[in-house]
Every structure is written in structure tokens, then in C-alpha cells.
Amino acid sequence: MTHVLAADPTLADFGKDPLWITIIKAVMLFLFLMLGILFGVWYERKLISRMQHRYGPNRAGKFGLLQSVADGLKMGLKEDIFPRTVDKVLYLLAPVIMVIPAFLAFSIVPFAPMVNLFGVQTPLQLVDLPVAVLFMLAMGAVSVYGVVLAGWSSRSPYALLGGLRSAAQVVSYEIAMGLSFVAVFIFAGTLSTSEIVKAQADTWYAVLLIPSFLIYVVCMFGEAARIPFDLPEGEGELVGGFQTEYSSSLKFALIMMGEYLHTFTASGIAVTLFLGGWRAPLPASWEWAHTGWMPVLWFFIKFVLTFSFIVWVRASLPRVRYDQLMSLGWKVLIPVNLAWILLVAAVRNVVVNEDNRMIGVALGAVIVVGALAIWMRFDTVNQRRKEARKAEAEAEFEQLSNEPAAGGFPVPPLDLPHYHGVQHKEIPSGTN
Asked: Where are the transmembrane segments (predicted)?
């Protein structure tokens, strides 16, 4: 039985606020994200430093808290350099396109249920829509145009390749991410974020739909271009990727803001769709933990823990190869997601409609058996390919070992006195 609190907002509660309340909520959201960027940069640098037995920022302010402020002031006051060959309009517009959709995507994230804000009962969420999650996906896709335009307008081969990489990466992982949300939509029966949080009153979807949650976690790194999937900025082969021609000025600061906001949005969506949103990890009958301003604390704790996990992965894993990135998206995440969606639909059909119980059970069994058969076949073929590559490498190594020209360079054998008709004579000591 689902416990629905009296303070749970619905779609009908949105659009009724006075204009000044909407402006206040928009300013609160803007301040939260701007301060989150400042402290997020400091927190990431500090956490990675401690994981690597370093101190991290510790000079500017107490515990280095003002280091991000100093970096922001430095980038804002540095000379703004324009390379000669760039398309100036798109060159300036690209960082803006990266930032604005990231702000808009966070507007659908619910921070708390109904609260008393200056005497007005209002949901602590800027806006909610019947297709709120699709709006978030659309904003994430639009922000990629900023990356592509940044690479194209720079008129640099490295920047252009970085922009193309980002476009291909987003196409791959946007599909898998959208499919990971389908199971949530099936169980919640809605695309509204506030309604999805309400549907998790008894069980969080991270537990109930754990395959969807794990797939989203992988897609989250690919979508936000964070290590191990930060291929658009591959320093080893692309210098700096799409931002190669952006100097350390205000434009570079906007690009960094867009990337951090994208990470924040991914964390906020993970909390909202899979981790219960603002709901406390306590029984729903404890109303004090789910009403008023207390849910803001629970949301913030989950948000920080999710962001910490992203930082921890960055400090722990190396960057993958580009072919590995694309293979994971197209060959693993999307097929597994499709099979999982069919299974979820079958189980959901059994729960809702008991008349079709046998059909649902049979369909679920067929899907599970088919998925296992495909996985076993794929694993067998992959193992055979590995063995074939290993045998080929061993044969090539054996062939090179038996040839006198090791690696293409003539090396005279040490155990023979003659080589190619030339007799080796000892050179008396003391001669030049």
C-alpha cells in the first residue's frame, strides 16, 4: 500500500503561484546552482587530493574555500583573446548554449513537497510538466549543440574532432539513458517528476528497478562526459578537444559552468527518479521527516553523495578508448535495456491485470531465457575471438623470435663467427 502524505504536491498544484513567488524560487534555484559550482569545484579538488594523499586547495581562505572564487575572478578579468580564423558569432554563442539549457534542465527537479514560503503554500520546485523528464532529456540534447558549435567555430582540427566525438557520444548514451527511464515510467505511470517521487513512497526505484538504475549510472558519466568517458576533451590525442581554442577567460568559465551544471543535473535526476527524491530513508508514516523544510535536507544529502560518487570514479578509473565507449553504448547498454523493458512490462502487466497472469509469466520467462541465451552466445563468441587473437599474437612473436632481423632491424647472431660473409675479428686493445 502506498503512503501518500498530505503535503505531496501534484501537477494541479503548479501554475497557481503569484509571480513574485515564482521569481523568488527562480532566484533560489540560480543561487543554489551558482554556489554549488563554486563549492563543487573546491569539494572535487579537495576530495581527489585526500584520496591521493595530498592537501588540495589550502591557501585562499579557510581550508581553501575561496580558491574557486579566486579562480573565477581570475578568468573573468583575463584578456579575452579571439583567434583570427574563428567564426566570432558562433564562437561567442557556443558557451552560452552550453550553460542556459543546463539551468533550465534543473528547473524540473523537486527539492521538497509543499512548503510555506513567505506565507504562501507552494511546492519547492520551479516547474513541473506532464512530460517533465522528456524536457530534461531535450535540454541535455540542446546543450550538445554548444559543444559542437564550439568545435566547429574554432576552425581547428582538434576542436572539430572533439565536437564530433561529443555528438556521437551523446547520441549513443542518450538512447540508453532514455530507455533506462522507460521502466520508471511504466511503474510510476507518469512522466511528471513530482508524481514519480510520490510513487516511490514505499520503495525507491533504485532497489525495485536496479538494472535501470545501474544502466543510468553508466549513461550518466557518458552523458556528462566525465571520466572515464570524457573523450571529447581527450588531452592525450586532442589537446583539449572542443575547448582547445578557448583561452582561460570568461568564455572558458562558461564552458566549465556548463559541464558542472550538466553533472549536477545528472545527479539531481538520479536522486529524483531512482533514489526517492526528497523522501527520507525512514518510514513514510513519520510525517515530520517528510513535511516542511526537512525534505530539503534529505535531497541535499542524496545529491552530495551522488556527486561524491562521480568524483570518486574520476579519481579511481582511467579514461577508456573511444571504440570501447561506443561498443559499450551500442552493443551492451541498449540491448540489455530493451530486454529489461520487456521484462518490466510483463511483470507490471501481471501486477495490474491478474487475468493475464499466465501470459505475463510466460512472456517474462521467454525474455529471461532469451536474454541468457544471447548473453551465453555473445560470451562464447567473444571468448573464441580472444583465444584466436592470443594464438595469432603468439605465432607472430614466435616468428619474430626465430628471424635474425628482430623487429625489422638486422641483428648479427652472437653465437656465429661469420655473418653475411664478414668475419668478425678481435680488435686489439688500445687501438682506435
From this structure: 20-43, 89-109, 129-150, 171-191, 203-222, 260-280, 292-313, 325-346, 358-376
Residue 354 has pLDDT above 70, yes or no: no
Of the candidates 209, 210, 219, the one whose C-alpha atom is nearest the C-alpha of residue 186 is: 209
Residue 417 lies in a domain: no
What is the per-residue pLDDT for 13?
A: 76
Residues 238 and 287 in one domain: yes
Is 26 inside any structural domain?
yes
C-alpha cell at 11: 501537477
Q: What is the DSSP string of 402-429?
A: HSSEETTEE---TT-SEETTEE--PPPT
Q: What is the pLDDT of residue 216?
A: 92
**Secondary structure (3-state) at 122:** strand
Which residues does 364 contact at the CB level (< 8 Å), separation at least 6?
A: 343, 346, 347, 350
> Is the pLDDT assigned to residue 416 strictly greater than 70?
no
Give the range of the structural domain holding residue 343, as residue numbers without chain letter: 332-389
- Per-residue pLDDT of 49-69, as tens digits, reads 888 888 888 888 888 888 888
**Whether residue 256 is found in the same domain as residue 368:** no
Query: H-helix or E-strand containing 117?
Result: strand 112-117
Q: Is residue 142 located within the same domain as residue 221?
A: yes
Closest CA to 361 of 346, 348, 342: 346
CA distance 414 to 2: 82
28 assigned to some structural domain: yes
Q: How many domains does the chain have?
A: 2
Query: Are 368 and 315 within one domain?
Result: no
* Judgement on whether residues 242 and 375 belong to the same structural domain of the protein: no
Distances (CA, A) of 231 to 19, 175, 215, 236, 247: 43, 18, 19, 10, 20
Phi-psi region of 333 (alpha: psi -120 to 50; beta: other; left: phi over 0): alpha
What's the distance, CA 172 to chain centroid? 12
| CA 394 to centroid of chain Cα atoms | 39
Q: Are residues 384 and 356 in the same domain?
A: yes
Q: Which of 264, 290, 320 is the last residue of a domain?
A: 320
